[in-house]
Amino acid sequence: QSALTQPPSASGSPGQSVTISCTGTSSDVGGYKSVSWYQQHPGKAPKLMIYEVYKRPSGVPDRFSGSKSGNTASLTVSGLQAEDEADYYCSSYAGTYVFGTGTKVTVL
Amino acid sequence: QVQLQESGPGLVKPSHTLSLTCTVSGGSISSGGYYWSWIRQHPGKGLEWIAYIYFSGTTYYNPSLKNRVTMSVDTSKNQFSLKLNSVTAADTAVYYCARGDDYDNYLDCWGRGTLVTVSS
After folding, report:
1. Nearest to B102 by CA among B36, B39, B49, B35
2. Nearest by CB: B105 against A34, A46, A89
């Protein structure tokens, strides 16, 4: 059960878009629809941002969107805002959970 | 609105057992459609899923921790618990409890986390 691969960092200026990738295998990301994304600010608990690849929980801005192609899922944050600066983790469920390595998003 | 709160010792000696409890408020742990999970985060590192349990007591463990982990649930107290035995410094982490959705399989509600340090 290896961690899913994410880029260590990503950045963009306010108003721009940033996309984070999450690469797994056909045994996790590629084989199941249960891909979710979590936002974590320093010292805080993770917060669910996307579930089932592209669905947003109530209260999450529509600036956050998710997609998947093959064994890679992606999270896009459009119209970057200062409060979007955080760590982001993907997760895949295939009977058990596996998380991604995490991506630090910086708003320039 | 469901809230989760972790509790337990913040310091555990090496080779001893780490014991944590998560108290659920604002909803019943016996509600259908959910399971209850533990996740940890080593200092400055990423998230690691540990285990989850249904209110019936059925459990699922991370294969890498399976030999040392036990989860249990107490529906009368609306609590679930984690025990991790034979701890080492490598088990020092922030431990989170969370609720999992059984239909779409995501973790939608998290506790604030509790730091457990393994040290003599």
Report:
1. B35
2. A34
